[in-house]
Amino acid sequence: MTKKFLSLPKLNFSLKDLEPVISQKQLEIHYLKHHQAYITGANEILENWDKARNKNSKLNLKDLCKSFAYQYNGYFLHKLFWENLQKPNNKIDQKLGVIEKIKKEFKNFERFKTEFSQAALSVEGSGWAALFYDKETDRLIIGQIEKHNLNLYVNMPIILVLDMFEHAYYLDYENDKSKYIENFWQIVNWQEVDKRHKKAL
Description:
CATH topology of the largest domain: minor pseudopilin epsh fold
Strand content: 5-15%
Structural class: mainly alpha
CATH architecture of the largest domain: 3-Layer(bab) Sandwich
C-alpha cells in the first residue's frame, strides 16, 4: 500500500481576494512558503519513520514526536485558518446557530470580539488565538495556542482560529498587531465557523 503524505490544501479564494485586509504578497508568502514549510517538515519526519521501520532502526521518539507535533499542528492550524477566511464582508447572518450561541455565551457579539481580540493580542511570542467548543459543558471557550503545541484543549474542537505568528501580518501591518486583529473580523467566514460548530455538537 502506498503511504500517504500531507499536501498543501486548496484555498477557497484567490490570492487577491482578501485584499485590502491581507495583501496578495502577504498571502503568497504565508500560504506558499510558511504553510508549505510545515507540510514539508511533517512529511520528512514521516519518511524518516518509514525508513527506520523498514531497516528496523532505533528512533529517538521523544524528539521525533515533539518535532512532528510542531510541524503537523502548523499544517493543521493553517488549514483551519484558510477555511475560516473569505472576501471582506461585514455582514453577518444573525440567524446562524454559532452567532446565537456566541451571544448567549458572551452576553453580546461585541463582547465576544473584544475577548477574542484581547486573547490574540496577548499571545506571548508566536502563536494563535482560538475559539473552542466544549461538549462537556456546552460552552464556547476562548484560548491561546503558544507556537503550535501548548495550551491546546485536547477534547475541544477548534471552530475559529487566528494566526498570530509575525509571518501572518508583518508585511502588511508591521508591528501593528491591533490593526491586523481589528481587520480580521472583516474576512471571517461565519458560514464555515457555523459548520464546525454544528459538527462539534
